[in-house]
Each structure stands twice: as structure tokens, then as C-alpha cells.
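Backbone-to-sequence.
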């Protein structure tokens, strides 16, 4: 089976390696960067991402949407969330509507506050959409550590084709049946991870961090319910699983960014971090903030994180907020 992987980054590389374990799969990764594609064709490595990683024989790289999508039976989308809309517009001339699409990007569209699944369905006029989310760092998948992801989709056929090709001896997939909830969890956990980093950067202990995570779970459950999802999704791999991982590890760029905010409170160092790292939670923060405002949802923790990050308010307000929160 030919599988198209749209986006070449750490996470898409990890997913590609999982897909390549099935020898009958042929994966073609798409990148807009011609240099990456040319380098891969010469070395069979993604030197700018994982210099020492030799990619499997059944993986190719192209910078042509037409080449990537031609004869593909399954498509994975893995660009940063803010680029999903543009990517779908570029894919459209070469996309056949019946081909299942699995979204591996995490986030909410910043301008409109739309879920990525809605963008894909509307732009590509398809109902065959699924979403992956869960507690997995790319390097852990690449190193074949046991990992797990939640998988939700618009129909069983789409879910099944993803499971058949992606699940393997080190990666577990569990159906979630909540397309809305899984995307809320996958998006907001990056924002909460920033807050977790702030807490640790301020010098607080694991007890305070656990306090934040627990309170955040209640707020995520409330947000899912208000937007029409299933509150139980907060207990899935996409919910508590991903929240624990992202809020407790320095491997998380969102956590590390928050730590910089809490420990330095220096606008120049904070800006430098953003200039040198991709911090999905920073962009998602604006999206979530707009989403709750547009839907008249009362979520004070989001308002406070937004004020600290975007408006320069004192990070110490976060610990005070936890104690006073109703």
C-alpha cells in the first residue's frame, strides 16, 4: 500500500517509521523543502532532523504534492496546525475524495478557531477523516519504546485502515469515538504544559505541579462538554496520558518555554526562546482563547495563561490562582 505522509518533521518521521514496519507499505513523505528532498535522495537520511538515522528501504521523500498523493491509499497530515489549511488547499488538485486522511497535527486554527478535522473535511470535501493524539514523544517512538495513541474518526472504515497500517509491536492504538474531545485534549495540553513549565520555573515542587494538572483536567472536561464532546475523553491517551507527559518533561518544548517564562521573567530571553524553538502551545493559546471567548465559555485558567504570556502579567499569579480557584 502506498501511504502519503504530508510534512517532514520529528513526529512525522516517527510515524513514518511505525508505518514502515509493515513491509508491504511504501511511504512517501512530502516536504516543501527541496533541499531536504534532494539530500534524502542522495543519502537516504533526513540529515537536518535526525542526522544518524538511516531510513527504511520503503520510504521516499518528495517536494511534489502530485507525486506524494498519486496512487496513495492513505494520507497522514502532520504539518504544524497553523499550516493545515494552506496544505489542504495545495493538496486539493491531487486529492481523491474517497482516500482516508489521518490528522497527526495538534492544535486549533488560530484565525477561525476551527478544529483541524473541520478544515480538512471542508477544504477537501471528504468525510473520511481521523485524528491521532496521545502521550508520545517522537524520539521514543523512533527508539521503539512501548507507546500509545488515541484514534478517533468519522467512520469505522477510516479508523480501521489507520489501525491496520500503523499499530505494531511497539505502538498501541485505542479507539476514542470522540473527534471533538480528542482534538481539544491534543490542543489544550500544550497550553497547560506552558503553565506547568511556569510553575516549575518559579521553583515550586511536584506537589504544586500535580495540583495544576488535576485542576486542568476538570477544566478540560468542562470545555469538552461545552463544545459537544464526550467528557470521558479526558481519561483517554489523548487526555490524561498526553497531559501527564507534556506537563512533566523537559523534552516538551511547551514545558521548557513555560520554564523560561517562570524562571527568568525576562522578555528578551522569552522572545529568544520563541525565535529558536517551535512552541505549538504558544500559537494554540491564542486559538483556545478565541474559542472560549467566541463560545462564551468561562475558563479562567486560559484567561490567566493568556495574560501572562501575551500581556506580560506576573507569572506568580498562577500559584495564587490555583489556591483561589473555585
Amino acid at each position: 500500500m502506498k501511504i502519503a505522509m504530508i510534512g517532514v518533521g520529528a513526529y512525522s518521521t516517527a510515524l513514518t517509521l511505525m508505518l514502515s514496519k509493515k513491509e508491504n507499505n511504501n511511504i512517501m513523505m512530502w516536504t516543501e523543502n527541496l533541499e531536504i528532498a534532494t539530500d534524502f535522495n542522495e543519502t537516504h537520511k533526513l540529515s537536518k532532523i535526525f542526522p544518524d538515522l538511516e531510513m527504511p528501504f520503503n520510504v521516499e521523500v518528495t517536494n511534489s504534492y502530485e507525486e506524494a498523493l498519486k496512487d496513495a491509499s492513505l494520507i497522514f497530515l502532520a504539518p504544524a496546525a497553523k499550516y493545515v489549511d494552506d496544505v489542504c488547499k495545495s493538496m486539493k488538485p491531487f486529492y481523491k475524495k474517497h482516500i482516508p486522511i489521518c490528522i497527526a497535527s495538534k492544535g486549533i486554527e488560530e484565525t477561525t478557531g476551527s478544529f483541524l478535522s473541520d478544515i480538512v473535511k471542508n477544504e477537501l470535501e471528504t468525510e473520511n477523516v481521523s485524528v491521532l493524539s496521545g502521550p508520545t514523544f517522537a524520539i521514543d517512538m523512533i527508539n521503539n519504546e512501548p507507546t500509545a495513541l488515541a484514534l478517533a474518526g468519522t467512520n469505522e472504515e477510516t479508523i480501521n485502515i489507520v489501525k491496520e497500517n500503523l499499530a505494531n509491536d511497539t505502538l498501541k492504538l485505542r479507539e476514542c469515538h470522540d473527534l471533538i474531545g480528542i482534538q481539544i485534549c491534543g490542543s489544550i495540553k500544550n497550553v497547560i504544559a506552558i503553565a506547568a513549565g511556569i510553575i516549575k520555573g518559579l521553583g515550586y515542587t511536584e506537589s504544586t505541579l500535580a495540583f495544576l494538572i488535576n485542576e486542568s483536567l476538570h477544566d478540560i472536561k468542562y470545555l469538552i462538554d461545552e463544545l459537544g464532546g464526550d467528557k470521558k475523553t479526558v481519561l483517554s491517551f489523548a487526555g490524561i496520558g498526553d497531559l501527564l507527559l507534556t506537563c512533566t518533561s523537559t523534552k516538551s518544548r511547551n514545558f521548557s518555554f513555560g520554564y523560561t517564562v517562570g524562571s527568568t521573567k525576562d522578555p528578551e530571553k522569552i522572545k529568544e526562546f520563541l525565535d529558536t524553538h517551535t512552541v505549538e502551545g504558544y500559537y494554540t493559546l491564542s486559538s483556545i482563547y478565541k474559542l472560549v471567548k467566541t463560545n462564551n465559555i468561562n475558563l479562567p485558567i486560559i484567561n490567566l495563561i493568556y495574560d501572562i504570556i501575551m500581556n506580560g502579567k506576573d507569572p506568580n499569579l498562577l500559584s495564587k490562582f490555583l489556591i483561589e480557584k473555585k
